[in-house]
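Sorry to interrupt, but I need a hand with the structure work. Could you write out one complete protein record for me, on any chain you like? Could you add the entry underneath, on a fresh line?
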Amino acid sequence: MELSRTRELLPRVIWRETSPSTNAELRDLATGAGPAVDAGEGSLPHGTLLATANQTAGRGRLDRGWVTPPDAAVAASLLVRGFGGALGPGWLPLIAGAAMSAALQPYFGAGMRVGLKWPNDVHVRDEEDAMAGRPGLKLVGILCELLLDGSVIVGTGINLLLPEWELPTERATSLLAAGADVGGAETLADAAGQRLADEVIAAYAAELLRLAAVAAEQPAAVRARVARSSLTLGTEVRVHLPGGEVFDGRARALAEDGSLIVDLPTGGELTVAAGDVEHLR
């Protein structure tokens, strides 16, 4: 895929016709653990992107699989170097979610909102879902990997053109299935589909890199931007902690490290650094 718009904005773009995992492949190239297929791949700059429309062995959070039919979704991994300052790497999935929300929102009409479901999914919801406090349906999954040198690989799986009958779960959707304006695209193998993928990737990557740069000087502004993108804050949630404990409460705020602060009905609060958060209906 040409990705001409994306190539104008990023220092290096690597397209694979197929990839087992874009995160794993970019990690190997960035660390020198794998062979450099193209000249220059052994030393990758900040903002390098590796993407495919046919990921065969991807994984999501908690080692869950992420596999979709070819030419219906895009897996894209972005190398972020030098991210620091007041915001730690725990903020990058949230920043990526805010960037992706901004990239996808223009494809939807009035009454549909794209936003971040804590900690690392991007959903779209209609007015009925909003009234009920539901997060809607998942469009994008995000998985970040911290490298030994402090760089971070931000991986995304973007459901673009999956028809409704090919969605992996009842909680998932795609731009096509959710009624977005996809410009007549039916598959990423056609010109309209390639244009759509290029537009989405370019808008997302450029905004993510912009927010990562702003975070170094204006962390409060980036925290506020993430909070505005959140579909979780202000809703009743059920938190499933890694140890098996379950708590109900109201998601109130994001902590300094990006953890979710949940007010408990019995008083006090729970700070969630890791776990699954379910929106209660």
Q: What stands out?
A: The chain has a mean pLDDT of 92. The CA atoms of residues 166 and 234 lie 32 Å apart. The domain at 4-228 is CATH 3.30.930.10 (BirA Bifunctional Protein; domain 2).
